[in-house]
Specification:
alpha/beta; Arginase, Chain A; 8-stranded parallel beta sheet; 10 helices; 8 strands; binds magnesium ion
Length: about 300
């Protein structure tokens, strides 16, 4: 595979949330110039257009709050396949779409890693752990379950596709948490996932936390998947998301993380999720997410011309 080849895959997934608008995300990233921005870094960029869900179906879950389950199952099949295939060729960048899409991208990349005889590590940049199971979710919004699914938590069998290679929870690091439901808190306490909430960022600096995780990935010869939820960022700089939580990562914290990820050379795939262009302000969130993706792929903030936002 070629780490200088970016494969853009649109994933207009909307089924994981009741707040409409995420399905416009891929278009917003293209309008923000993501492809040309990456190409300007000297990378090969291939835009494969938008993926379509593989027709699914499946049983009705007894939890009456759940909605969109057959659609999420259908997307999970399509996205896992796309991740596994594109991950063998270059660096897939998934343009979401709500965060339920990561059920597919993370499980697909885990399979890709297993084929290469290496462990998959996941960096989860999000205000939320998205660690509900189908039984514990009270909102029924399936963008809150992908990490539970991908790490092999119970209760998904028969509803979402069987996992080819569950991710070891000890290989997951979550940074930026500040909204955790009680059931997720209990799961975090036992799962073995490394968790750094906003206070940990305040006290230590995001660089120290991330460097420690990247060392672990390197020592284990792991593949690293990064899942970047818009709400990782402070809503003051990234308003285009349906789940704003105050007190998120700053512009510099986010760029530092991306620059460190680039320097590590470990990143094999990236999700850009939860952008809701309907809630955005003249594209500023789409532009910021595009800039962050560019930082992750090698651009330095100091190298770029001044842009207003
Ligand atoms: Mg999320
Ligand atoms: Mg979130």
């Amino acid at each position: 595979m070629d780490t200088r080849r970016c494969i853009l895959i649109g994933a207009p997934v909307q089924a994981g949330t009741r707040r409409l608008g995420c399905d416009m995300g891929p278009s917003a990233y293209r309008a923000a110039g993501l492809g040309p921005v990456l190409a300007a870094l000297g990378l090969t960029v291939e835009d494969r257009g938008n993926l379509a869900p593989v027709a699914g179906g499946g049983p009705v879950h007894p939890n009456p709050a759940i909605h969109g389950l057959p659609e999420v199952a259908a997307w999970t099949i399509a996205l896992a396949r796309a991740a596994d295939e594109a991950g063998a060729e270059g660096v897939p960048i998934f343009l979401g779409g709500d965060h339920s899409l990561s059920a597919g991208t993370v499980s697909g990349m885990a399979l890709r890693a297993a084929r290469e005889g290496r462990p998959l590590f996941v960096l989860w940049l999000d205000a939320h752990p998205d660690l509900h199971t189908l039984d514990t979710t009270t909102s029924g919004n399936l963008h809150g379950v992908p990490m539970a699914y991908a790490t092999g938590a119970p209760g998904f069998a028969g509803y979402l596709p069987p996992l080819g290679a569950p991710v070891d929870p000890h290989h997951v690091c979550m940074i930026g948490l500040r909204s955790v439901d009680p059931a997720e808190r209990a799961a975090l306490g036992t799962a073995g996932i490394r968790v750094h909430d906003m206070r940990a960022i305040d006290e230590n600096g995001i660089g120290v936390l991330l460097a420690d995780f990247l060392d672990r990935v390197r020592r284990a010869d792991g593949l690293l998947h990064v899942s970047l939820d818009v709400d990782f960022l402070d809503p003051g700089i990234a308003p285009g998301v349906g789940t704003t939580v105050p007190g998120g990562a700053t512009f510099r914290e986010a760029h530092l993380a991306m620059e460190m990820l680039h320097d590590s050379g470990l990143v094999r795939s990236l999700d850009l999720v939860e952008l809701n262009p309907f809630l955005d302000e003249r594209g500023r969130t789409a532009l910021l997410m595009t800039d962050l993706a560019a930082s992750l792929m090698g651009r330095r903030v100091l190298d770029r011309p001044t842009r207003s936002f």
